[in-house]
Amino acid sequence: MSSWRNFVLRIGEKCPEYGGNDDFKDHIETCFGAIRRELDYSEDDILVFLLQCAEQLPHKIPLYGTLVGLLNLENEDFVTKVVENTQANLQAALDSGNCDRIRVLMRFLTGLMCSKVLQPSSLVVLFETLLSSAATTVDDDKGNPSWQARADFYITCILSCLPWGGGELVEQVPEEIERIMAGIQAYMSIRRHVSDTGFSVFEDIYESNQSDNEKDFLEDLWSRIQDLSNNGWKLDSVPRPHLSFEPQLVAGKSHDFGPISCSDQSDPPAALSGIAFGKQKHEAESKYPQRIRRLNIFPSSKNEDVQPIDRFVVEEYLLDVMLFLNGCRKECASCMVGLPVSFRYEYLMAETIFSQLLLLPRPPFKPMYYTLVIIDLCKALPGAFPAVVAGAVRALFDKISDLDMECRTRLILWFSHHLSNFQFIWPWEEWAHVLDLPKWGPQRVFVQEILEREVRLSYWDKIKQSIESAPALEELLPPKGTPNFKYSSEDGGKTEHALSSELIGMVKGRLSSREIVSWVEDSVLAVHGFDITLSVVVQTLLNIGSKSFTHLITVLERYGQVISRICSDQDKQVMLITEVSSFWKNNTQMTAIAIDRMMGYRLISNLAIVRWVFSPSNVDQFHISDRPWEVLRNAVNKTYNRISDLRKEMSSLKKSVLSAEESTSKARAELSAAELKLTLMDGEPVLGENPVRMKRLKSHADKANEEEVSIRESLEAKEALFAQAVGEIEALFISLYKSFSSVLVEPLSDAFGDGTLRRTDAADEMPIDDEDSSAMELDKENEKPKKSHAHGDRSGNGYIVGEKEQWCLSTLGYVRAFTRQYASEIWPLVEKLDAEVLTKDVHPLFLKTVYSGLRRPMSDSV
């Protein structure tokens, strides 16, 4: 990488390029000198790279803004290109709805305004454009309130610029910024409050409706900005390097910013129904999601030096670094620990990372990414961050009974993987008390599932050794994971043992699948019946494939046809899954893998898996084990991935069709033009070009036409598969919700007969431990009350959750999780779901949970 690129990229960092110096003024002067020397030779490269760095390292925007300001004194034409390119990029981002790019580019423009590169009035006009669009959107008469998510996003973008340039705007254009603030206040008065229903990390199962009384994200940000304004726009988290160069910068030309237009708002639903409104609202919230839902894990004393607006700014820094450096984990960790702030923020950093890991409906990146970030931060800050992470785990563990079921699963997967990178070291004696809880106690189940996942990542004896400080916890370890092969001896029956041995000999003799099918049908099925046939074939083939995952795949690929022939309908497939579960009853992981692979090879259907999961033996485990839920998650996810992949393939093929049409049209036009052209042959005028060229043009036109036809045929084939996949996923969700409703109706009526989950007013207060401990405490900024429950059970006035109640709460939690995760596929089915499942006979708590997952108001059910 050339030296000027290094200077631009590493500006603001304590690095060799800048001699280990961390003075922003020196960095800017050094970088400015390097760029000025190269500007005449590499102007285009510098323009592209500088804008790229400003977009992808937004925590350095004040530095890049000042750098551009100094360049403005030397080369106005170059800076004009910077402004014009930024305008074009912002317009493209607004047109496509690229939220992150819109937000960062607006911050960059604010930085340019601070450095006298951009006219303050131009930035105000941009703010007014977004404000006008937002106000129109939420207007009941002129707009489409179902798209409030986009309007809120626009206002958030305006407000999030003010920590970086609010003071300068007030100083230079006080009347204009006052008008903007008044407009935002007017917008806040007409928009609808946004409830966190369905998206809260901690479930409000007691129906307190507390979230309706709390500030939503935009209301909270508006409050912070008002406090900042009242405080004279002073904050500690945003560096102002332009002030060091202000005497020079004022001599530069301030550029105008061209007009920007917001994309047209969607038309309001033709029919004023709750379903139509809900579909558009879901689409808007999916396209313009809320970036963060704060997770206040630690006592407020841990962040007492951080002002509310500084917390917002640091969160922005951290989220931006994780967003743009997601492919460079080491670089990501390095930037996160070196933010340009003057106070410590380890606790805030942990809260921000966990808020993303547990973000609902889904985190921006795969949970594995956050695992790696936390590991690298623990290594980068060995004296501080590991204790902070441990404190966060303890706090979340104490609140595990209130944690959303999907978040609980994510936390289990993260923590087990995290421990695997640190020799599985943890003070397990702190959690030994879970053995005193009933088997359905959330904390007990949590520890049990962590140990099960750890065994998957290591081996049984290693994990047993890791819990030596609390040996009694061995009771929660899973079995050693060996296969449960019925025919390892003659105990399973002499006849069956002999048949199994014969089948093993056939496989070793490499007989074909067709030959084995013939033997099964003639010598086993016809003589011994279906039950014995199924048991012998499945148990034997699974035993042959039990050595490794690769062995299993090989067996299913070679002899899957044998299983397919004997399990041709759904009832038999359910029996097949039962047999698989029996063989791997000591190994939850292999059970899930085997069933998943069989579904992949179309040996079993997703509907058969749903039926098996909701069989009585599995229903009894819903609140004490993740085993049936893992199988169900895999099945639903695989079905969803099929339809998602088909959508992507169809979209790609449609683009290819358009491209092929253009190529065909161009080839035909060239051929037609050549045919009409007069040429001289032997002195005589002849219609048509040289025969050789004509032949080549005709061949090219024919080939282009063939390619177009081929692509169209491929598209038609994909569309047929897509139609089939749509039918499959519709049948899957209808079956799933019918099953949920069926198993819940009686337990819910017994446990919560009045249709509500009553809550006691008393709540135990969690004790605060020493430095390594933590507690959920009052979030003074959002006025969230403390909640804490001993041993993970909700208790108050002596009430302890019983097994039936916990079963209901766990199952309802999974209903909400599935509904929320696949809402985009469920909304198109809502009418059918209402007609077939969510009828007046359904239990009100089940209905409320489904509506919560869809973020659908209960008024729609009236």
Key traits:
CBP80, 2 strands, 862 residues, two-stranded antiparallel sheet, cytoplasm, mainly alpha, 1% strand
Explain the overall architecture.
The chain has 862 residues and is mainly α. The termini are far apart. Strands 1-2 form a two-stranded antiparallel sheet. The longest helix is centred in the C-terminal third of the chain and has 61 residues, at 691-751. It has helices at residues 3-10, 24-38, 43-56, 61-74, 76-96, 99-114, 120-137, 148-172, 174-190, 217-230, 246-249, 274-287, 308-324, 329-337, 346-357, 367-380, 385-398, 405-420, 442-457, 460-466, 494-508, 513-528, 530-544, 549-566, 570-583, 588-600, 606-613, 616-619, 627-675, 691-751, 803-821, 823-826, 830-836, 844-854; strands at residues 678-681, 684-687. This is Nuclear cap-binding protein subunit 1. It is found in: Cytoplasm; Nucleus. Component of the nuclear cap-binding complex (CBC), a heterodimer composed of ABH1/CBP80 and CBP20 that interacts with m7GpppG-capped RNA. Residues 763-774 have a biased composition (Acidic residues). Residues 636-663 form a coiled coil.
